[in-house]
Amino acid sequence: MLNKINQLSASSGPLKPGHGLVSGVIAMTLAILCFLGVLAFHFPEYLTTPQLRKAYDVEVMRRLLYWSLVLSGALTLFNIVFSRQRWLALWTFVLLGLALALGGHKVEVNPDFPDHTPYIGLDWFILDLLGSTLIFVFIEKLFALRRDQPVFRPEWQTDFHHFIVNHLAVGFVMLATNLLVHRLFGWAARDGIQAWVHDLPFGVALFLIILVADLVQYWTHRAYHEVPLLWRLHAVHHSVKSMDWLAGSRQHILELILTRTLVLAPIFVLGFSKEVIDAYIVIVGFQAVFNHANVSVRLGPLRYLVVTPNFHHWHHSQDREALDRNYAAHFAFLDHVFGTAVQSERKWPERYGVLGDYVPDGFVRQLHFPFTWKG
Questions:
Q1: Which of 2, 141, 154, 363 is the most exposed place for a label (fewest CB within 10 A)?
Q2: In the 8-state DSSP scheme, what is residue 360?
């Protein structure tokens, strides 16, 4: 059974429906999230994100945990009754049993704990995975670009491993980026400029923060493509061959820290208000996932102003006319201004991935790749 689990987690092929693997993987994933959720209830000071735990409605979290347990159990029971992937169902029942033995959705939460303990963002991983799956899989099925592409497409395991690590490391990433921003750019902060920016109307400030962040993102992104040393990191992100909501998660953690530090620097220096920063985080979080999604969205003339899935899909293309083009993350007009927008008579690219396909599959090998590739 352990060998089968290892094969399932390491395989790069798609999961075909009708054999119990798809429902089995969904059930097991829910069971794992339930088990982790119960642990987060037991140890909130170490396993939850301080910024999120202040906004939680505990009863809502309990109901979410309860129905996840029910759905996982129902899918597993269905597979057992119809003799589908019983080995996977057994492991799922073991995880569900552990979650229930530890208290299930009825675990009492101790609210008395220090607010500045080192933490792993287990809650952020759980909620983002559930939310992203429910929202973006639905959108992809409703507005699919490539209708024959399954949810569990080739190499989904690699991208899921990136998703897990980059989400669980959220505490480390935030600590590292905040430290670097303050150490490297603290000298540039000026009270007068920060006071002026802080007093801007919300809509103006929101437009300005996105524009400033995207200008930095544009030139940082362009440097990843034009500087060979930086391309070694960024090639990992470009190695994905199927575009969907999970594809954007394939990102080397060093690139993640470097990019966030450089993008957050002007936001910190200019002194935007918390409300504006919170709104920006929601927008950038949605666009980062949506623009990689398997959706047929172009937005007509607006596509020349705003980055859409169509715009960003071209950036991931192997097609010659698309190489080193479409760098912007939010405002497509930046690429038109700087002369790096894709010019093609075709609406969508044909192939995705790195030209030459030299980046290995698998999370661990991709983590090592920037330090081993000599080409």
A1: 2
A2: P
Residues 185-206 pLDDT 10s: 999 999 999 999 999 999 999 9
Residue 5 has pLDDT above 60, yes or no: yes
Read off φ and ψ for residue 306, nearest 5 degrees. -115, 140
Which class for 95: exposed (0-12), middle (13-18), buried (19 or more C-beta within 10 A)?
A: buried
- What SS3 state is found at 313? helix
Measured distance CA(328)–CA(339) in Å, rounded? 12
Q: What is the 3-state secondary structure (H, E, C) of 204-249?
A: HHHHHHHHHHHHHHHHHHHHHHHCHHHHHHHHHHHCCCCCCCCHHH
Return d(Cα 201, Cα 205) in angstroms, integer: 6
The pLDDT-based confidence of 360 (bands split at 50, 70, 90) is very high
Token pair listed for 108: 């009492």
Question: What is the 8-class DSSP label of residue 361?
Answer: S
Q: Which residue has the tokens 């989400």?
A: 167
Task: Using alpha carbons, select from 262, 299, 267, 297 the residue that is nearest to residue 281.
Answer: 267
Q: Which letter does DSSP use for residue 199 in this model?
A: T
Do the Cβ atoms of 310 and 297 come closer than 8 Å? yes
Q: How many residues does the chain have?
A: 375
Stretch 69-91: mean pLDDT, rounded? 92
- Long-range pairs of 339-345 with CB within 8 A, sequence gap ≥ 24: 340/222, 342/311, 342/314, 342/315, 344/314, 344/319
DSSP string, 155-196: THHHHHHHHHHHHHTHHHHHHHHHHHHHHHHGGG--HHHHHH
What is the percentage of the chain residues whose pLDDT exceeds 90?
79
Return d(Cα 373, Cα 358) in angstroms, integer: 9
Mean pLDDT of the chain: 92
The dihedral through the CA atoms of 360, 366, 372, 375 has a sign that is positive
Q: How would you class 23 by CB atoms within 10 Å of its CB: exposed for 0-12, middle for 13-18, buried for 19 or more?
A: buried
Q: What is the pLDDT of residue 43?
A: 92
Q: How far is CA 121 from the centre of its chain?
A: 13
- Is the pLDDT confidence value at 247 over 70? yes
